[in-house]
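Input record, target 12 of the design panel.
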């Protein structure tokens, strides 16, 4: 559905093929280029760009027309409004954006060109941390882990970054669920802040946040989450802050001993962090029969599913973390 208007795709139902002139303007700076038509198994599909915001994929067989709506990522030059050094290796970028800020959803990410040249060649994927559609801004929380992110730290306020986004499939909040447990490992806090805000905005929900890290110095965003809920639990591997132990163990203890209404049918777990942590949480969720969504970690190159470099094994076959994810239903992941 286009904002403030009717759905042009549904008007095309009833055996009428959309006219050729309603298809994409191939000059638009989108990841999908010219309109294309495919045929197979008696079903023809065609990609349609309307304006600069939505991609409609039309599939028509005989006189039946189906429609699926996608939010398209675009390439956008974003001006830096603020660039803070949070800790020795942690930085927060605030950027101006007319498109990404108004089309993002929790769990999605962007691909950033980290220099003004083609060195490094590949963009760097960074989770969307927060955004404001009203002010047309978004925030990225990133850790310096290599050459690309090191180059990113050199950018100053008022400079521009070449960014593609929003990308990927994010978290889904079931309105029938009453208990929402967010579990972050290390930098896994980055996409969960926006998710917590989205759940908070629905009202009448219990939000619990469990943050695990190596040490006290590596605990991020605790104060931000406490603004949204007073149910925040910290754990560290060395016991320097909060409870000592892995956050997956804290989750299990929390579910068995501290959750006041442990109703599995009313609860969802959302997790982001290292894969060993995600695997442990998936096992706990399965044992407790609780719905669980995982933001998977894999090295990415293209960010749009073309290079197949971030494939993971699922019960439905291999899927791309960048395109089909990064968020997956925990029950679908096949752990090696």
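The sequence produced for target 12 reads:
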């Amino acid at each position: 559905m286009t904002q403030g208007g009717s759905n042009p795709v549904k008007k095309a139902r009833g055996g009428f093929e959309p006219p050729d002139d309603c298809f994409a303007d191939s000059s638009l700076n989108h990841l999908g280029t010219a309109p294309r038509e495919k045929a197979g198994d008696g079903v023809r599909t065609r990609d349609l760009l309307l304006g600069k915001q939505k991609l409609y994929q039309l599939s028509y067989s005989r006189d039946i027309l189906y429609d699926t709506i996608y939010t398209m990522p675009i390439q956008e030059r974003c001006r830096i409004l603020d660039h803070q050094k949070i800790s020795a290796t942690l930085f927060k970028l605030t950027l101006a954006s007319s498109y990404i800020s108004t089309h993002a959803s929790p769990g999605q990410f962007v691909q950033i060109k980290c220099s003004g040249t083609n060195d490094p060649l590949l963009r760097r994927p960074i989770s969307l941390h927060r955004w404001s559609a009203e002010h047309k801004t978004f925030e990225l929380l990133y850790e310096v882990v290599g050459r690309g992110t090191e180059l990113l730290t050199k950018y100053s306020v008022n400079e521009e970054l070449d960014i593609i986004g929003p990308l990927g499939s994010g978290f889904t909040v079931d309105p029938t669920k009453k208990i929402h447990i967010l579990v972050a490992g290390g930098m896994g806090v980055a996409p969960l802040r926006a998710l917590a805000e989205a759940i908070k905005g629905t009202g009448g929900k219990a939000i619990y946040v469990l943050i695990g890290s190596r040490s006290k110095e590596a605990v991020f965003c605790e104060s931000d989450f406490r603004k949204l809920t007073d149910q925040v639990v910290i754990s560290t591997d060395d016991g320097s802050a909060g409870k000592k132990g892995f956050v997956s163990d804290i989750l299990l203890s929390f579910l068995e001993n501290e959750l006041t209404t442990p109703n599995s049918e009313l609860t969802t777990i959302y997790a982001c962090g290292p894969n060993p942590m995600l695997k442990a949480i998936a096992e706990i969720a399965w044992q407790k029969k609780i719905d669980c969504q995982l933001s998977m970690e894999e090295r990415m190159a293209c960010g749009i599913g073309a290079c197949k470099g971030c494939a993971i094994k699922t019960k439905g076959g291999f899927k791309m973390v960048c395109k089909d994810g990064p968020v997956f239903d925990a029950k679908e992941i096949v752990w090696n």
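The first helix runs from residue 8 to 11.
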